Amino acid sequence: MSKHTKAAGTAGGEDRRVSLFEGVIDGCSLAIGELDEEKAREVCQWKYDGDYAVYNLSNWQTAKFLHHGITDERRRRKEFRSLLDGDGCFIGYFRLFREEPDSITLTIGMEPSHCSLGLGRKVMELIKRYAAKKYPGKKLLLSVRGFNRRAVRCFTGAGFQTQNRFLRETPSGTTEIFLEMECVPQPDAGFLGISDTVPEPEAKGGSKRKKK
């Protein structure tokens, strides 16, 4: 599926559900949908340039062998969501999972050609509204590589504040500085929500965030 392929369509002659939640952010229509295997396979094909190549994922078969969460159907249904533009085109994805009772951890990825187009803060606002509605009162936590100033500016502009800096060993074997950021989403009465029947993320047994 190319980035221009719409999420709308039919499967087996039946209408497919396009979105779980929708919103208009600064005049831009965006939606949140399920992340099915077709979209997950597409994510594994995304390629970023230059320093951002560290965000390139393994191909699908390697990712499955390494047990990456995006390849596991059960975890995708619980934790992963797709991001769609106003035409229903797949432009990114995010993951929400619980590590602590009072917080939800967020990771996010944008389709490469949609980076640096001013969509970041709009997408983050949509995710914040979704999180506030689905997980009221929970903090949103995320970690970002220190070199990625583009992402840090986006998250800061979306209301996230840096709480900690720490060192983490990356899959390539190098050690990098990461920033831990957090935000407390506020409910928005104007948010358009469609009932999300996918089970919410489960707390990971005994998992604790390590800080250095």
From TrEMBL:
The N-acetyltransferase domain sits at 30-182
Q: Which residues form a coiled coil?
A: none
Return the annotated region ranges for Disordered. 193-212
Which SUPFAM superfamilies does this UniProt record tie to the protein?
Acyl-CoA N-acyltransferases (Nat)
Any Pfam family from its record, for instance, is Acetyltransf_1
InterPro entries (alphabetical): Acyl_CoA_acyltransferase (IPR016181), GNAT_dom (IPR000182)
- In terms of superkingdom, the source organism counts as Bacteria
Instruction: Give a GO molecular function annotation for the protein.
Output: acyltransferase activity, transferring groups other than amino-acyl groups
Protein name per Swiss-Prot or TrEMBL? GNAT family N-acetyltransferase
